[in-house]
Amino acid sequence: xxxxxxxxxxxxxxxxxVLEEMxxxxxxxxLHGIMGPNGAGKTTFFxxxxxxxxxxxxxxxxxxxxxxxxxxxxxxxxxxxxSFQIMTLFDEFSALxxxxxxxxxxRAQALHGHRAAIGDAETDAAALxxxxxxxxxxxxxxxxxxxxxxxxxxxxxxxxLAQEPRVLCLDEPTSGLGSDGIARIAxxxxxxxxxxxxxxxxxxxxxxxxxxxRISVVHWGQVIARGRPDELKANPxxxxxxxxxxG
Amino acid sequence: xxxxxxxxxxxxxxxxGVALVLLTVPLWIAKVGLYQYIGVEILIWAIYAxxxxxxxxxxxxxxxxxxxxxGIGAYAFGLTQFHVAANLWVCxxxxxxxxxxxxxxxxxxxARRRGIYFAFLTIAFGQVFWFIAMKARNVTxxxxxxxxxxxxxADFGIVSFDLTGNTALYFFVLALFxxxxxxxxxxxxxxxxxxxxxxxxxxxxxxxxxYQVVLFKMLAFIASAAFxxxxxxLFAMAQGGAFPEVMALxxxxxxxxxVLVGGGLVSFWGPVIGVVVFLLxxxxxxxxxxxxxxxxxxxxxxxxxxxxxxxxxxxxxxxxRFSRQPAQAQPxxxxxx
Lengths: 247, 337
What we know:
The structure holds two protein chains of two kinds. By secondary structure, chain A is of the alpha/beta class. Chain A has ten helices and ten strands. Chain A has two domains: about 1-80 and about 165-245, 3-Layer(aba) Sandwich (Rossmann fold); about 90-160, no CATH class. Chain A has helices at about 40-50, 70-75, 95-100, 105-110, 120-135, 150-160, 180-190, 205-210, 230-235, 235-240, and strands at about 5-15, 15-25, 30-35, 55-60, 65, 80, 165-170, 195-200, 215-220, 220-225. Mean pLDDT of chain B is about 95; it is low at about 325-335. The longest helix of chain B is centred in the C-terminal third of the chain and has 27 residues, at about 215-240. A two-stranded antiparallel ribbon of chain B has the order 1-2. Chain B has helices at about 15-30, 35-60, 65-85, 90-110, 115-135, 135-140, 165-190, 190-200, 205-210, 215-240, 250-260, 270-290, 290-305, 310-325, and strands at about 155, 160. In chain B, α1 packs antiparallel against α7, α3 packs parallel to α5 and α4 (about 90-110) runs antiparallel to α10 (about 215-240). The interface of A and B includes residues 106, 110 and 117 of A.
């Protein structure tokens, strides 16, 4: 069974069709990449998968369970986490607080108003290990807004990881990074691979073709090609679409 | 508002310091040309402002109709006294409960709205409650107010304190102020309070982390209304009556001004500073000129233009400057606790 699946998803904003009959699935442990030009509907598709946009037609399933139309917090609670292309961090919180707040253990006690949230050693240790995983262990106490751009990109992923998700949706995780930064994020994602289902929207061809098990090419709100990286490289549509050069 | 150094503590050094200073106030307040009642008034408005800041500073929700809950607390305190039981604890509970219920009702309508829509809806609801207070004469006494509300004794079973004097009332209100400070400090830095702050910083991310944003906003609104109700109850007792004036739009604006001028957006204590400055300005400037509001208004404009972090923000800057200079021996304080 797919960890996350979209069936015949159709999204219309007014008279503009943004997604048309999108079919998509990612298996546990699989990394499914999504590529395509700007405005192809990739981020809208993520918004459908994570509950921000309700599809006009079609279904979204998490572990085979229909979640179409559920609000974001319900879908998040089912184990679908996402990162954002436009960084969406809690800037006044430290890196550690950002991550701690994302943990399911914290969420389970979020209505507790009678005890302190700070200094809970167990939560902090778990949150620290997530930061270690993305190389931010030494920056735990630094405010999110004081981190460098590359560190903020890493924290963006760490927050999603801290949710202990079964499906991790990464929306252009390398956006705005130089080649060193891209390499670091790629290394991070490579370590995660196999542990959970990952869906990654990405413009960087090297990143995607080096990491993905399968890639879907989205254009005009539809999947125009799908397959293993080596299959896609040979695909005349993809070659002609000038989506990028392959290394 | 960054997480301050003592966020995890129930009682912080700052609290102890503030409590000690406030305990001595009756000893010297008359000697500096002030009077006992202003102390009572300041503490009541400080309770109101601290509760208001849970909504504005922590959750980032600008309510411009909060006077309604303060007023409802005052009326409910009086009505409970007249019709239910002339017992201080029952009346306080009545005031808090009525304000919370009204808060829940309003929250149900406004919690899904953001920014200007949220602000305008709270104004509209504030006006509705003010209008009811003005027009429902047989219940509220209309413009004349609900009179006379007695200063009931604080009965602890074995001992009972008479609160009819301003000094006694001051100590009683001080006790409740300190309870409010501890409760709100704890709430602000509890998991619940952290989620509220997260929602202010990024509602989008909070939702995708699994937090039901609307529920948290509603609870914050209700809690804030409850503290306004407590403050309103005490105000009814202090004034000996409940009046519609405090529910009017400009009074709802005052609480916003107090919290912003004091620095509620960057500091837990900001609202208290704002209340002290506002009420002292009213009395001291007001003694000199009838146009004191003009001067306070100008101060407000200056703060918004040049130091949006308010007076507490100025303190934080000074503290940072002085803590950095001595050879960086200790890490700079992250925020005024």
